[in-house]
Design goal:
17% of the residues lie in helices and 44% in strands. The chain is of the alpha+beta class. It has one domain. The chain has a six-stranded antiparallel sheet, with helices on one face.
């Protein structure tokens, strides 16, 4: 399992690879399983390893990595995307898979990076985004 990561992509095959970085097989028959989830505008779909995550909904069963990939991919296909960014190039629907995201912000003191994590019980978050291609 990796920490402090954010991976963007477009195709399902890469989505599966990205998701695999956030699940761990401990080699003794034990592996990371999701038991609940939350959905919010800031983080998108967040899969949790414990049912105590604030505001979470229990999954119908404990999900190992492959089941989580299916669940998340189907959620992503049916969720609403933000407005496409205004660009001089082209855009394509994409995804972001992360367990901590760094947000670029601007305030009176200048430009800075803020970090938002997905909480103690979070395994991984999946969020719709856009791939932007220049001319």
């Amino acid at each position: 399992m990796i920490h402090n990561a954010c991976i963007n992509g477009v195709v399902r095959e890469r989505f599966e690879i990205a998701m695999s970085f956030f699940f761990e097989d401990f080699g003794n028959g034990s592996e990371t399983k999701a038991v609940s989830y939350t959905v919010d505008e800031k983080s998108g779909l967040v899969l949790h390893w414990h049912k105590s995550a604030k505001g979470s909904t229990l999954l119908p069963y404990e999900m190992k990595m492959k089941a989580c990939i299916e669940f998340a991919w189907h959620w992503l296909q049916g969720t609403e995307y933000p407005d496409s960014p205004d660009t001089n190039g082209s855009t394509e629907k994409a995804w972001k898979v992360f367990n901590q995201q760094f947000i670029h912000k601007n305030n009176d003191d200048g430009y800075y990076i803020d970090c938002e994590d997905i909480g103690f019980y979070g395994i991984v978050a999946i969020k719709p985004t856009w791939a932007v291609y220049g001319k």
